[in-house]
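Quick check before the chapter quiz. The format below is the same one you will see on the exam, so make sure you can read both the input and the output lines.
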Amino acid sequence: MGKDFDFEEISFYCRSPIFMCPDCSHAPRCRDLLNLLRIFKLEEKPPEPDYRKLFPWTRPRPEGEVDPNNKLNELGSGEWLKFTRTVLTETFPKTLGHELRRKHPEYKSPFLLGQLLAFFTKERDMVLDPFAGTGSALLAAALMNREAVGFELFKKWIDIYYEICKSHEIPRRKLVQGDCVHLSRYLPAESVDFILMDPPGILKPMEWLGKDVKGEQAFDLFFSMLEELFVNCRKVLRNKKYLAVFTRNLYQEGSYVYITPHFAAAGQQAGFVLKGEKIWENTAEKLRPYGYPHTYVPNVVHYNILIFQKNA
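Here is the expected output.
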């Protein structure tokens, strides 16, 4: 049968003693029930992994690993070089309130956002997330000892963020319920070290406008909002610092809509310099048989992450 159980450590409380055993008063030490445990190998759910140890960017670095001339971050040369790859295909652990965070239509892993924070910030730097959602960027910032402030329109997502912080004992960062377009009212000029922006979907105007509009009107209103936001972001960002924005192309009404250049143009019009892009493949995205078996329709499973810099 395998290794014997220690009766001093293992007990079983039967909820149906009449059915299982006539001596219900002895159920906590019932040998028959313990044998059932052996046969079916019933085990407790394993504990959640230590997510702090899984965060690779929080490890202490030996003296001399970080170049003394590195004023941007706290990475060694190998970590720096790895980040400059233009494609991200990693699979991230489903922890830190994953089941709660996935309720948001555009949720991202704190481990993904942590890579951006690790490269573009140092400890105690200030991070801004204008579209905070369930607070993945704020979670990453707290774990990496960064300050952070986020903006979110809907209280239900803010409540999830607070719940995750409480259940995992992660220090809260400031999350403002309000429109991010007005963020310059809350933040002093040149007070932010890095901006991480993951805008809602253009075709979901209820998430960024609070009302339903369609077609070209939605497109025009979205980029009008985005251009104003870029201007205000530039005001609060320190000189020479960076802004990263997630973009995702669309497939609508039989054609591919390449919207990434519109984001690039909006940032450049606000005075930012476009420095490059990273492509993140969302390996968790489910593939759907669009067009099968008649025509080609892509499954859009990647995001373009545009990197801008403020140069005065």
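If your answer matched, good. Strands lie at 87-88, 126-129, 147-152, 174-177, 192-197, 237-247, 250-252, 255-257, 272-281, 302-310.
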